[in-house]
Amino acid sequence: MKLKRSIRAAGFFAAAGLLLLSVAEASSAGIQLSESAVKGRFGEAFDTTGKRADWTAAHAEKALPAYKALPLTVELWCKIYDNAQFNILIAEEPKESATHWSLYGAMERGVLGAFVPGYTPSDIRGTTNLADGKWHYVAMVLEEKSVTLFVDGKQETKQAIVRKPGRSVVPGSLLVGETIMGGGKINCDGAIDEVRISNCVRKIDGVPAAPFVADAQTVGLWSFDVKAGAQEFADESANHNPMQVVSSGPSMSVTDRVGFNPGPAPFDSVAQEIRLRKGAAPIPAQQPSYSLDGEWQMATIEGDVAEERINGPWEHFMKAEVPGSVHTALYQDGVIPFPYLGRNQLTTKDWSFKTYYLKKTFPRPPKGQDKTLVFDGVCNKCTIYFNGANLGKHEGMFTSFTYPIADMLQDENTLVVKLDPSVSRWETTVVFNNSWGWHYSMFPPLGIWQPVSIRGEPAVKMESPFIAARDAKGGVMDLATKITGAESGWTGKLVGVIAPDNFKGETYSFEQGVESKTCSKTVHLRFVVPNPKLWWPVDMGDPNLYKLRLAFVPAGGGRPDVHDITFGIRTVKMAPVDGRPDSDLLDWTFVINGKPMFVKGAGWCTDDAMMDFTHARYDHFLTLAAAEHLQMLRAWGSGMVETEDFYDLCDRKGIMVMQEWPTAWNSHNRQPLDLLTETVRQGTLRQRNHPSLVIRTGGE
């Protein structure tokens, strides 16, 4: 079995303590001891593997001095399946206690061992391998000056011992199938039958042919035969000290989830079940936006001359590509040397702490693309000016922001973005932070790093539609979206077309009428995709993808709202290691489409300090990752809340993603909470349809 240590992550997880069920608690929990029963050497035995029930060990109801008063003879039957770890058969008190004793199967060799930390030597071992899946009769005679071990009626070893002075007694229960040490525990991969403890030196000269019987020297006897309706294992000695099961769950994942007390999820509501029709349905195309990407003007100035930069012509400027970074523009204009050569970063760094202005002039956009100015990402603090008017300020690299500008548009328009200098300490804002000199770069990022556009607005709007598999193999899908329109209410129809994206197959569609008497309404639909082609990670199958075009068409006319969503049919579950819930461990086995997998992965750092996040660059590195059979990349908290290009490529290559939020070393305690909160909110909504996203974690 495995040594289990409590896992603690400051600010995110707290280790759960060992849960011991009393008789009343066991009854209320509905414990059925028969679930842990297997065929024993005589009658039934206690299964300590945890594969049949949510417990792996049992403890005596009372801690009795008789279990540590010498001499003692401890006898039991055991069956051990694996010697990859230590297998604890029986233990008195925690391992730190001066009066602790335990019997175990040793790691690797599988031999019988006795551990008596209050004596020297403290670890005594036999010679016979117990980890062969067969029943063995083992015994220990513990006296004040010696330990004798027996396997199958034959003496294995006798070791003289000397008591250590000054050790303390740590109170605790007698445990079968487990020992406690340092806040963690070691269990047993096997089964245990017929435990007898005696306050004498018993003669061990053969293998018992019948179950143990209690006599005047017996201080504990547990057969582990299950009695009808019993909630504990009876003690047939005069002490009548029953064994009660030790719950191995719930896991830390369950405890953490309950403690977090999350609000309702999008699919917690009652779903309206609909049927898909074979074939496409008439559906409007997604309306284009007016792109402001491409060549801009950029200037850096000293002092406050904002009025000149906002309203007047620029005599001196350099060209800058958007999306991009100020450092790329500076390099391409010959102002700075190539930052990645030699020690050039030392001089590049100073250019991160200047004020920059970027300007774009453009004609009036076409009708339908003239309502809302959209910034998908600016690094990091900026002020936006449009036709001389101050639209507002923004901070936060990973959040988009918008401004209504329909009434401000002219035949010729000027958009100016003032970029503030980078902050001196990254933990005072929200940005990828491995460019402040502690990692592989020392010039903080700065620039309009994501697209800028002007879009139209639909009459009724869908907010971040979400599609996910409820039953992947059955093709059962949930689709939810919040729809918002006029305050007085609205009506229309929701139209969806589902077609294969990267494989050949059938197209399906649906039309569903929707009406609301108020401003907004959340719609939750459930349907079945026939003959689903599942999305699989690298080396487990093909990363099959579907394309959903979803449109809300308002009744009586008006611009429809159309979303194109690429999705995969797959489920993700986190399960306990070896299927055994443990209160000291997180569920850390990834189960994809019902299939547990051992994940091969690597860390994924920020791709480029100069913010060259092009599709081609991502494709190059992710193609190499898939070719190396990497199944998961950890997008770490010191790096990026990754882009749509990154996730689209991971979807198509079958690379799973562990996405962290942009925090590191408890920086969430110092970063602006409102910026972090908005980063998490937007990132969750933007990324959640990607099948490659399988887990989120708190940060670095």
Description:
This protein is mainly β and 700 residues long. It folds into 4 domains: 17-249, Jelly Rolls, CATH 2.60.120; 272-283 and 457-567, Immunoglobulins (Immunoglobulin-like, Sandwich), CATH 2.60.40.10; 290-455, Jelly Rolls; 599-697, no CATH class. The chain has 8 helices and 47 strands. The strands form 10 sheets. An 8-stranded antiparallel sheet has the order 2-21-5-16-7-8-9-11, with no helix packed on it. Strand 46, helix 8 (673-687) and strand 47 (693-697) form a beta-alpha-beta unit. Helix 6 (615-627) packs parallel to helix 7. Mean pLDDT is 90; it is low at 1-31.
Number of alpha- plus pi-helical segments: 8
Measured as a percent range, the helix fraction is 10-25%
Q: Record the strand order, biggest sheet.
A: 2-21-5-16-7-8-9-11
**How many strands, which pairing sense, and closed or not: the largest β-sheet?**
8 strands, antiparallel
- Overall mean pLDDT stands at 90
CATH hierarchy: architecture of the largest domain:
Sandwich
Q: Roughly how many Å is the radius of gyration?
A: 33 Å
How many domains? The number is 4
**Proportion in β-strands:** 35-45%
Distance between the termini: 30 Å
Model regions low in confidence, pLDDT < 50 over at least 5 residues: 1-31
CATH topology of the largest domain: Jelly Rolls
Topology, number of strands = 47
Shape: elongated
Structural class: mainly beta
What's the CATH class of the largest domain, please?
Answer: Mainly Beta
